[in-house]
Amino acid sequence: MIPLDELVGRAEALARSAHAGQVDKAGAPYAQHPERVAAAVTGDPQAQAAAWLHDVVEDTSTSLADLRAAGFPEPVIAAVDALTRRPDEPGDNYYARVAADPLALRVKRADIADNSSPERLGRLDEATQIRLRHKYAHALATLAAYELPR
Question: Mind telling me which Gene3D superfamilies this protein's record contains (predicted)?
Fold first, then answer.
């Protein structure tokens, strides 16, 4: 298993490598997104690691088995699994799965905050901004019933 003091750095390195060459909807390097999400969950290395890795299984060829083989701890792998959308999965089922994992829920809230930031949305065309605002408002409303652990 990866030592705790190396966890965030290893997650960052894997995410940057896995997302190399990818861009977001506005054309910015994709790795900037998990970097911002990780910065939003400071104070907990496992949350930061999950934040760096939250899109690698869904959006790259990296698998949960790859994360396990790399030595990431099970709570991080479980959070990444919870954060990974399944094909044809209804959104509310996805959000219920995320909410059942406190680490995943913390990362998802930071993910939504980053995805819905005015700075980020402002770089997109108006139709996309409207669609994404509705998507993220629904996500937040669905997750609102779940409280972060204290």
Answer: Hypothetical protein af1432
Q: Are 54 and 34 in contact (CB under 8 A)?
A: yes
Give the separation between CA 83 and CA 111, rounded to whole angstroms: 10
Closest CA to 103 of 23, 18, 38, 28: 38
pLDDT at 147 over 70: no
Average pLDDT over residues 70-92: 96
CA angle at residue 73 from 71 to 76, to 5 degrees?
120
pTM over 0.85: yes
Rg over CA atoms, the chain: 15
Assign domain 4-143 to a CATH class: mainly alpha
Domain chopping of the chain, boundaries: 4-143
CA-CA distance, 116 to 136, in Å (whole number)?
7
d(CA 101, CA 76): 10
Residue tagged 């496992």 (tokens): 46
> Which residues lie below 8 Å from residue 42, measured CB to CB, with a gap of 6+?
48
